[in-house]
Design brief:
The protein is an alpha/beta fold. It has 8 helices and 5 strands. Strands 2-1-3-4-5 form a 5-stranded parallel β-sheet, with helices on both faces. β4, α7 and β5 form a beta-alpha-beta unit. α3 packs across α8, α4 packs parallel to α6 and α6 runs parallel beside α7.
């Protein structure tokens, strides 16, 4: 199996068709390791991060697309807001994607309400400028690596709770929520890197497909 015949992914033609009328010219991505980290290579899928894949597709419509990824590994949602939102606003994006919360989920304690507040403080200022905003739900990391085995039920519950809060706050601000936590994944290679709770090449291809499909919906609603 490869990306071209994986039902969970998109072909180049499918991806281009979904963003054919894309109005966005400046893309900014903010977040934790979910926003930035490259995945382990998987045969037939490569290792390119989802955000770079999305930018590549948007450039088929707008070759001059300005794109920057401000994401950094191991940041809590509060750190993402404090370190990245002002930088993102200064770039005057027309499209922003927020991918964070996974570091919070994996912490010793987890306050979903606190993360929701931080997300609101990220989404609100971006939406106030007229920027289109996508928020990404955290995929179910409970089976991503052996170290999480003893916490599987706890992590799954936290991911589900974060998904509910992220979707709710996104709707409140007029942002679009990309639900990776409940997105079906067809049989095939694991989407997870073998040594960390991060997506591998297949996982990034699946995440990119989810974002591009959401952009297709967002474009029709704009």
């Amino acid at each position: 199996m490869g990306e071209v015949d994986d039902p969970s992914c998109l072909t180049e033609a499918e991806a281009r068709k979904l963003v054919a009328e894309s109005p966005w010219r400046r893309l900014v991505v903010i977040g934790d390791g979910a926003a930035k980290c490259a995945g382990q290579p998987v045969a037939g899928f490569g290792c390119k991060p989802w955000a770079d894949r999305v930018a590549d597709v948007l450039r088929t419509v707008c070759p001059g697309l300005a794109y920057i990824n401000l994401g950094r590994r191991d940041l809590l949602a509060a750190d993402v807001r404090a370190r990245q939102v002002a930088k993102a606003l200064a770039l005057k994006p027309t499209l922003a994607v927020i991918a964070c919360g996974g570091t919070d989920v994996l912490g010793d304690s987890f306050d979903a309400y606190a993360v929701e507040i931080e997300l609101s403080r990220m989404i609100g200022p971006l939406r106030d400028t007229g920027c289109a905003v996508l928020t990404m739900g955290v995929p179910d990391m409970s089976s991503s690596e052996p170290a999480l085995a003893q916490r599987r039920a706890e992590v799954r519950y936290r991911v589900r709770l974060l998904a509910e809060r992220t979707e709710a706050i996104s709707l409140r601000h007029g942002a679009h929520y990309v639900d990776l936590a409940r997105r079906p994944v067809s049989p095939g290679p694991s989407p997870w890197s073998s040594n960390a709770p991060y997506l591998n090449g297949r996982g990034h291809a699946i995440a990119a497909a989810a974002v591009i499909q959401s952009l297709g919906v967002l474009d029709k609603c704009s």
